[in-house]
Amino acid sequence: MSVLDIRDLKVEFPGRKSTFVAVQGVNLEVEAGKILGVVGESGAGKSTVGNAVIGLLQEPGRIAEGEVHLHGERIDQLSEKEKRHLRGRRVGMIFQDPLTSLDPLQTIESQLTETIRTHLPLSGSDATKRAIELLDAVGIPDPAERIKQYPHQFSGGMRQRVVIALALCAEPEVVIADEPTTALDVSIQAQILELMKKLCVERNVSMLVITHDMGVIADITDHVAVMYRGKLVEYGETDQVLGRPEHPYTQSLISAVPRPDIRVNRFPVVNYIEAAETPTKHIDISTHWLGKARDYAKPDGALVKIRDLSMRFETKGSVFPSRRKYFHAVKKVSFDIHEGETFGVVGESGSGKSTIARIITGLYHPSGGSIDFAGTELTSLMDHRQVLAMRRQMQMIFQDPYSSLNSRMRVRSIIAEPIKFHKLATSNSEVRQIVDDLLDHVGLGVAAGEKFPHEFSGGQRQRISIARALATRPRFLICDEPTSALDVSIQAQILNLLKDLQEELGLTMLFISHDLAVIRQMCNRIGVMKNGELCEVADCDALFENPQHDYTKQLLELMPSMELLSRANLQEEAGTSA
Amino acid sequence: MIGFAIRRLVQAVIVMLVVALLAFTLFRFVGDPVNQMVGIETSLEEREALRERLGLNDPIPVQFARFIQNAAQFDFGTSYQFRQPVSDLFLKRIPATLELSFMSALFALVVGIPMGIYAGLNRESWVSKLFLSVSLVGISLPTFFIGILLIFLFSVTLQWLPSFGRGEVVQVGSWWTTGLLTVSGLKALVLPSITLGLYQMTLIMRLIRAEMLEVIRTDYIKFARARGLPDRLVHFRHALKNTLVPVITITGLQLGSIIAFATITETVFQWPGMGLMFLQAVQNVDIPIMSAYLLLTAFLFVSINFIVDILYYLIDPRLRVERA
After folding, report:
1. Per the omega criterion (within 30 degrees of 0), is the bond before B192 cis?
2. Does residue B37 lie in a domain region?
3. How many Å apart are CA A35 and CA A223, to the nearest integer?
4. Would B160 be classed as within a structural domain?
């Protein structure tokens, strides 16, 4: 018999004008000790299902139809007070971001014991004992000591372990995990998934794992439900669904997942999704303004030569230099980027990838080393005009499409700003024409120019960022995790756009990412970073097929298994060829 | 922690020295102190002797050092108008002002915090909306107007509360006088405290409400709810504590300004405090009182800020580590 049984669930959010139906007709069952995955892209309603089960729908959301049963007992109609006794006691929850899930002002101990004592009739010391046991069970070393610490004294992965311990405080029957590993590095992700699997078996807990990551689904779930726009499109055993997807949406979703094992020329785009972009005209770039003034002198050797680049941040100041303490973010890193290639930098958070990007663009001043850009030494550049000329040639695309655009400016002004600043156009009408062409070229359409950034989705905003970067006619583009905040289908579109632009304009790119699969598809050569050091630089295929450094090998091993997915692709290929 | 406290203490001393320099400049260079002290018919020789006796012929740094030395011993010279030591005058006045300030701060906190919490948690209820509109009145009306309004209502029309003075006071210790122990003293405190504290109350209430709305949306509050914690714990242990850091900053600064700038309220209610004395000093160009008042005010602000900084440390564990 199933532990959690969701029948014909419909969740709606009544608005002033119309009622938004977030989830409709969803039937799910979670069996004892098993993991059910719910996968879909943002806005598919997967988190809403989780929130509906635990009774924490955001106002004014409500369950309009359907039933939720826990061990045969109906729980969706309980009073608020009864639901509170259910939460934590019988249904636990794990959230996405371990950095914000814990109260920063309370010790781990106080957060654990208050939860234990809310649900179980234990004395203070017994609760503490239980809390220490729980921390031990989720793999926190030295739990008796660490329980007295505050959340900020734990790393991201350790905090997620604490969050899991909190969810398990009162031995719940079901745990709902909403994107439990999305905010974590690959190596940490693998550990947390391992832990979740282990806990399911050991404690006979059932789990409902909500994620957008096919890798996570393939890795730990027994059953999977694919959601699209609030509806269940496919539901079955994980092997079955991933290996032989039946619904066209599932098929295209699976094929859009970047593959680390083989290299493809273009990313398969999720074609099931109705394209939101208006069909736009492509401009002939060779004759256009964008393509002009590109006759740079060919550099002597590589375009960018980085030698012994170091960056340290002061963590403890002192009048005496000997007493100062530093954090070394980048340690003596050297590499070349050749004209026209894409150089990938991969590594975990904190490895110094983004710091390098910021040093090259001049946002940080390095504490040592040199950067040679087309024969000009950047670190000693003093003349303001020369600095501007260099800045114009290199542009950056940032990770977060939400905070990297000024929300008070119209898109047209955002894109026109660099053109006007660098005085690249002679008249306002010319600027206008260039902005229109850029908007068309990145697939947004001219009409987008009059809107504000908040009117766009994440992927569209990233297109705006790309248009803004192109507006200075750059030669060198630095992309710092440009797609890690986006859904796979959108990611595929953006990466394809970047590839097209590179071909058309002959751009040189520095591509920073933590996602090995994306790196493999995008880059010609790859540098692997760890703790501020460059472990290995190799050609793309060589690195994936024959990694030299131990850390590279470790990273490659940690990638979620793609076996199930590749089987699906093979099938699909067989299907199309047949 | 101790290193941090010492650093802050050093900064506080520097601030005090700068203010002392200002106060000294005021005392020494705004008008001739000797002219202020003696009558018109005093001869030049007598003036010169007085000048020598007061040390006004010494080099300026020596005079400044002496000024600081005296100020540190709570000696601010003699008031021009009262011919009494300024420190004695202040000692007589300080209890009145401090009692008024603390009562109004208490009023602001005790009323403002619960109102803020309520309005933050029940955003849509009509009571919160009422709180907000009433508080708008508190912020937009000037203090003296509210004071006069209260006097008109409670003293003139209803005749419940006195309109001026401290009422009966009781001597506690050698110099402290308190109005907290007599009925008439307490009654006299009500109107001025409300007048003085109304603005701070509004500010605190609005601040807590805004912070609460912010904190309620955070993941750790959602997670606390998802763990099934009762509302009492979620609201007070988790939400309220996280709103406190900005609230303490503002409250600290406001407490400083309540004490230092009670002048208007003291004038409206003829409250025999420092503010009223300062106002009279300004009217009579009583420089020693003015410079002493300046120093005292600065001292209050600096010490309150120091306490606030230490409180941050106690509330937010993240600050304790970053510097370690």
Report:
1. no
2. no
3. 7
4. yes
Domain with CATH 3.40.50.300 in chain A: 2-42+58-256, 289-366+375-561
For chain B, the domain total comes to 1
Does residue A186 contact residue A228 with C-beta atoms inside 8 Å? no
- Are A173 and A71 contacting, i.e. CB atoms less than 8 angstroms apart? yes
How close, in Å, is residue B114 to chain A by CA atoms? 21
| A154 part of contact set with chain B, CB < 8 Å | no
A117 vs A125: CA distance, rounded Å: 10
- Neighboring chain A residues of B238 at a CB cutoff of 8 Å: 103, 106
Lookup result for tokens 């919490």: B117
- A367-381 b/e with 16+ CB inside 10 Å = b? bebebbbbeeebeeb
Which one, of A499, A439, A405, lies nearest residue A278 by Cα? A439
Measured between CB atoms, does A112 come within 8 Å of chain B? Answer: no
- CATH architecture under which domain A2-42+58-256 falls: 3-Layer(aba) Sandwich (3.40)
Give the closest-approach CA distance of A298 to chain B in angstroms: 48
CB-CB contact of A221 with A35 (8 Å): yes
Domain holding B272, by residue range, is: 93-286
| CATH number of B109's domain | 1.10.3720.10
Considering only CB atoms, A87 lies closest to which of B227, B242, B317, namely B227
pLDDT in 10s for each residue of chain A, 578 residues: 688 999 999 998 888 878 888 888 899 999 888 999 999 887 788 888 988 888 888 878 888 888 899 888 888 888 888 888 888 888 999 988 888 888 888 889 999 999 998 888 888 899 999 999 999 888 888 888 889 888 888 888 888 889 999 988 888 889 999 888 877 777 788 888 888 888 888 888 999 999 888 888 888 899 999 998 888 999 999 888 888 888 888 888 887 777 776 676 677 666 655 444 444 566 666 667 777 666 677 777 788 899 999 988 877 767 777 777 888 888 899 999 998 899 999 988 778 888 898 888 888 888 888 898 888 888 887 788 888 888 888 899 988 888 889 888 999 999 999 999 888 888 888 899 889 888 888 888 888 888 888 888 888 889 899 999 988 888 899 999 888 878 887 888 888 888 888 888 888 999 998 888 888 888 999 999 988 889 899 998 888 888 889 988 888 887 765 555 555 554 444 444 43
Interface TM-score (ipTM) > 0.90: no
Residue B112 lies in a domain: yes
Which 8-state DSSP code applies to residue A278?
P
Distance CA A268, CA A547 (A): 27
Return the CATH architecture of domain A289-366+375-561: 3-Layer(aba) Sandwich (3.40)
